[in-house]
User: Fold this.
Amino acid sequence: MSSANRRDFMKTVGAAGLTASSALASRAGGKMTGGRVLGANDRINIAVIGCGGRGRSDAQSFADFGEKNNGACQIVAVCDVYEKRKRAVSERHKCDGFLDYREVLARKDVDAVVIATPDHWHSKMALDAMDHGKDVYLEKPMCHTNDEAKLLVNTVKETKRVLQVGSQTTSADQWWKAKKAIADGMIGQMIMSQGSYHRNSTGGEWNYTIDPNAGPDGKGEDYIDWKTWQAASMCSRTSARCRILSIWWPTMRRGTRWCSARRWQTRNIFLA
Assistant:
């Protein structure tokens, strides 16, 4: 892929909500324990960790771009602790599927990973990926604590890897237009910013039903590696169903997303 096409690749993926200055621009040199050095014409091999709704969408976005742009990128591996999701997404992209993300990171043909797991795994997986020489597209939120944030920043510097934190509210075109309108004074003097977020159905609020047979004791595609799922969290061992229901992500992610976006759009006004 030419350097011009590589730049177009980054811009196009960014417009799709996967901001692209991004986790895919592999860089030669620097500290690496794995991965490969890409030439200008090499195809970018991507692995997706987390095959729920967000991970499936991300995988499809990259796959679609690769198909439309002479194989610029491809999905080569996917991972999920839920056998049913892992199998479905691996079959969709005709690639290998894994229950253990460490097996994905051990593959030398993987250039970059998309991390779209539940939040409590984000920082741990990103750190491990960079230590294995992978660039990272990390879904929001980046992490849970300030200490984790500092560790991620230091690891980016040490490994010379690229890490991009994904947030549609600072990536999609409409938010940039709103930011420019504010900066240009199009709405007059701004004295306050208030945001709200509403959905009109239970599906729109992501209140999905849980497969009744899925869990740590499930057989075949109903199996969930629950021990691994909760390993990076501070939670006590409860049933998979209760724990999944307790993490109602809109409360955390939506608040993080909208507060972050409003601060970004108004920082030169309220943070001057």
